Amino acid sequence: MIQVGYMAKRVVKRPDWLEANQVADIYSVSNCSSKDFADYISYWRHNGFWLFDSPEIIHALARENSLDLRDSQLFFYELYDLEYDDDGESWKTFGPEESFITNVVVPDRKSLEGYDVVTFSTGNSAECSPLSCNSIAAQVNTNEHCLLKGLEEAKGLLEDGKFKNSEPGPFRIFAVYSVPWP
């Protein structure tokens, strides 16, 4: 797994349209349900994985731009080093956007919450998390945060076609960790 960075998110409770009673809230990597703390891309402080290298960068960005972090939770992400192309049914390599410096500071404390499968049709920032965005959590076992329990399970579901035609791929698998704000 590649350590790819941090994001502050406003976590939402399970929406009524998501018919997955095991889900209490959405810890997805995508910005579809649980929103990122800001429309951060225009500030150009993200790394080559379109996340942040440290919580301090998020704090500085919030301070400099009067962004409110009070209701946000901090997450740290690791990424499986291959992405799945469901059209070709194969795993392929990818990497960070090289025009951005990527120097991720690993947190001292982190708690693994589960694994998310995320679409990357444009190849840069996270697009959709079909477990929540496309209600795949109603068809497969997820935890209370709408995440899968393991990497091998996520890989198997992709290879078995459970995400096929949900959103344009390729798909990347993220380990989602909650971390305390420093």
Polypeptide structure, described:
- This protein has one domain (2-179).
- The radius of gyration is 16 Å and the shape is globular.
- The strands form 3 sheets. A 5-stranded antiparallel sheet has the order 4-1-5-9-8. A two-stranded antiparallel sheet has the order 2-3.
- The protein is 13% helix and 26% strand.
- The protein has helices at residues 55-64, 130-133, 151-159, and strands at residues 2-10, 12-13, 25-26, 35-36, 73-79, 82-85, 90-93, 111-119, 171-179.
- The mean pLDDT is 95.
- The two termini are 24 Å apart.
- The protein is of the alpha+beta class.
- The protein is built from 3 helices and 9 strands.
Write the layout of secondary structure elements.
Layout: E1 2-10, E2 12-13, E3 25-26, E4 35-36, H1 55-64, E5 73-79, E6 82-85, E7 90-93, E8 111-119, H2 130-133, H3 151-159, E9 171-179
Helix content: 10-25%
Largest sheet: 5 strands, antiparallel
Distance between the termini: 24 Å
Mean pLDDT: 95
Rg from alpha-carbon coordinates: 16 Å
User: If strands are numbered along the chain, what order do they take across the biggest sheet?
Assistant: 4-1-5-9-8
Q: What is the number of independent domains?
A: 1
Residue windows where pLDDT falls under 50 for at least 5 positions? none
Provide a count of the helices. 3
Strand content: 25-35%
Shape: globular
Class inferred from helices and paired strands: alpha+beta
**What is the tally of beta strands?**
9
Element-level helix/strand string? EEEEHEEEEHHE
